[in-house]
Amino acid sequence: MSVRESFLEIQTKLNEVIIDQEAIVEKLLLSLICNGNVLLEGAPGTGKTTTIKYLSKLIESTLGRVQFTPDLLPSDVTGSESYITDEKGNGRIEFSPGPIFNNLILADEINRSPAKVQSALLEAMEERQVTVMGKTYKMADLFMVMATQNPIEQEGTYPLPEAQLDRFLFKLILDYPSKESEKEILKLVRNDSFNKLNNEKAYDQSIVFKAREEASKVQSSEAIVQYIIDLVDATRFPSKYSDTLAKWLTMGVSPRATIAIDTASRALAWLSGRDFVEPDDVRSVVFPVLRHRLYLSYEAYSESVSSDDVIKEIIKSVEVL
To answer: Which of 52-56, 70-74, 155-159, 224-228 has the lowest mean pLDDT?
Structure first.
């Protein structure tokens, strides 16, 4: 079985238990292939934690969970050094790794802890290492932070710093399922079908590294590269493309967004069985890549314009050459 076929099997198995969230499952797998991090936003009970938990069961990996609360300390995330004494009374300083030293990290309700704790994740998310008391500790080769947040309750929450938001490859929105899908969910619960993944054989994590290698060989034409550049340019100089964009945007996205669109579109093309990127691949990933990176104006907020509305206008205003 090829690496791509293995990923398609994982995708199918996840879709069997994560009902009506095919786009979310696809983007989670893309993030894994792209060595990125994911921010999941959705109302309580929409399956955020379940989705992440089952992904860790299907790919041979360790899952670390951090429940973010206002009284959490950075050392609760990264770990800390402590003085250990042996039987002979000899003491030494020893580092006790925190939950972040796992393959997949569930940062649950990440916006419920202050900036000091959130910043403890910054180095790990970008550089795959943690520095404690001047010493640097490397993360595992397979490492991904999957953070969740609730968009409804704002009391007792802390907005994520822009620097941290930029380190998430995707921001995914989990909507409510349709009425038909809700029936399927009830059947799964009644038949205890959610537990069937516990008995599934986990795929070796080496398939992730092979997938990254294969996806990196996917080609993007000059026209596709220029299309990606123009989409990003429209966030920085919106007046060149649309008066509406100029009214809604105050600041452009960083080069990290350009790299994310390119990497994610090539990974999607690979998962679709192609060795080249199509414009639809770019348009598919541009929403989760940009929606948390855009800086909307007060006028946009006053008109109840969402980030997705702005991205739709960007796509409409930028042509593929």
So the answer is: 155-159
- Output phi, psi for 264, to 5 deg: -70, -40
Vertex 157: Cα angle to 251 and 175 (nearest 5): 75
Query: Rounded mean pLDDT of 203-229?
Result: 94
Counting residues of the chain whose pLDDT is more than 90, the rounded percentage is 47
Tokens of 89: 């009374």
Residue with tokens 């099997």: 9
One-letter amino acid identity for 277? V
What are the beta bridge partners of residue 203?
59
Answer yes or no: are the C-beta atoms of 227 and 320 closer than 8 Å. Answer: yes
Residue 235: partners with Cβ closer than 8 Å, 6 or more residues away: 249, 252, 253, 257, 290, 293, 294, 314
Question: Over the stretch 176-186, which tens digit does the pLDDT of each residue have?
Answer: 878 887 888 78
Please tell me the predicted confidence (pLDDT) of residue 199: 66
Helices (DSSP H) in the chain: which residue ranges?
3-17, 22-33, 48-58, 74-78, 115-118, 122-127, 162-165, 179-190, 206-215, 222-236, 243-248, 255-271, 279-290, 298-302, 307-317
Of 21, 39, 311, the residue nearest 170 (C-alpha):
39
Q: Which residues pair with 145 in a beta bridge?
A: 105
Which residue type occupies 197?
L
* Cβ atoms of residues 58 and 165 within 8 Å: no
